[in-house]
Amino acid sequence: MKILIDSAIPYLRGVLEPFAEVIYLDGKAFTREIVASADALIIRTRTRCDKALLEGSKVHFIATATIGFDHIDLEYCRTHNIVVSTSAGCNARGVLQWVSSALALLAKRDGFAPQERTLGIVGVGNVGKLIKEYAEAWGFRTICSDPPREEREHLGFVSLEEVLRCADIVTLHTPLDNSTKHLVNERNISFLHPGAVLVNASRGECIATEATKRDDLTYITDVWESEPDIDPAYLAKSLVATPHIAGYSAQGKANASAMAVRALARHFNLPLENWYPEEVATIEPKLLSWSEMCSTIATACNLEAESRMLKTSPDQFEYLRNNYRYREEYF
Predict the structure, then answer these.
(1) Structural domain of residue 81, as residue ranges?
(2) Handedness of CA 68, 222, 96, 113 (dihedral sign)
(3) Residue 22 belongs to a domain with what CATH number?
(4) Which of 46, 93, 117, 203 is catalytic?
């Protein structure tokens, strides 16, 4: 059995070698020729798995160590009996802490208490529901939009337009598909009131770059259209600008790697279904007070410092992302 692994996925070296031939590659180095003889791939978002890559190959299992799956042609995989596994939910607390750091930074800049702001959450899945839970405990009013969940569960969620009109801070946590590409665009961004804040830690294409021309908004941005070639004007306008690392906690990365290995183990009947990287500590979730979070978060997630690095060297986007020092989760 041959397994190809993105070399930027941490904690995996030596884990699968007792059971297979393992080759580690840069995410962009997966070619049709190299993939042809592989049985399984473990990838990140930088590897596009579609007909152009997979046709004629032996691949029958793909694990992505990411929560997103827009880089995988699921229909092609389905029709060619290729099993696909994602790491949904792996980094939810990492993203929670990145968003928390952004909220603390905004509160310090603008001098508000949580009770004085309405937080709009667009996409209430693994990440969005955590942000809702913590934000409400801290005193924020929340307003949520998630059409698929609302259709299934009738939770009282509202339209995107209503969130944009009513919220002081809007944070996006949707997957990327045909329904969410350019979800925020030149038309509906006009619904945000002057001084509102738009946070994107979902996928870059969920906000149309052209829509970010408004100078009376605050942008907090981790994901960008056309990464790593990000728009200089959007970068300059963003109060927070980071290189797609919102979920880059040690625990989030360990979860992603473990979920990929466990899924592969189930598929190939390997004795690794309970594997977790021993070098990463597990953290017991807890609810901090607003004041405690604000006084401690910069130690764990210093967005001002991280933004300076990207704004100083935007051409180093991939280097900064691939060499990011994983944060430790603490709540």
Answers:
(1) 2-86
(2) negative
(3) 3.40.50.720
(4) 203
